[in-house]
Amino acid sequence: MKKSIILLSFIFAIIGLSAQTTVEQANAAYSEGDFPKAAQLYEEALRENGESADVYYNLGNAYYRLNRVAPSILNYERALLLQPGDGDIRFNLEIAKLKAVDKIEPVGEFFLTEAYNSVKNAGSTNQWSYLSIAFFILLVAGLFLYFFSRKIGWKKIGFYSGLAFLILCFATATFAYSQKNKLTHRNTAIIFSATTTIKSSPDNSGTDLFILHEGTKVDVKDQLNDWKKIETADGNVGWIKSNELETI
Fold this sequence. Notes:
Elements: H1 2-31, H2 35-49, H3 53-65, H4 69-82, H5 87-97, H6 111-120, H7 125-148, H8 152-184, E1 188-191, E2 195-199, E3 208-213, E4 217-224, E5 227-231, E6 237-241, E7 245-247
Helix pairs in contact: 1-2, 2-3, 3-4, 4-5, 7-8
């Protein structure tokens, strides 16, 4: 039994060392200016170890250096999905978008919705979850103070602080749920075709509606066979073949 545990520990250690080496090799290749090799190694690290905001970010940088617009934007978007509050990711994403052909102005949001999204995107799922747990503990402490303190002043402090922590606990839990929902239900994508014609129906005989180019971000609304119904940021809707875009 003891030998089996040691063997398993050794295997996991080797796997971890191999994964670390892959990322380090990719970083070294990037530093040396070998961007094709760096991109290949970052892709390999993601296949081996799953998603990582740092690896997606570095992969986006490598593709940007290779002047590959769609893959760079895709990986910056994936990194931002995992770490929505990271300013470096957001900045590089905006720089990469400058290389995209389509300059689509999004439909304006209600100012309260915009404020809500701005606050929500300041943290990731885990960060909001940890804050929610912390506020819940403080809520319990406030309730304890309210119910068990003998002094009116302390009871008031316990009541009002408990009420404040209840609101904060609910808000952060809502943010965590919303961010988690974005991760599990990914309905946005990046156009990968250099140029594609959006159709009015999910078939080649559909009417040509408008043209999109690589790097454009769209919302995926529906799917039928090998076609997807998409909506652009300015509200235009149409159908595109599934192999012409990549889900974020």
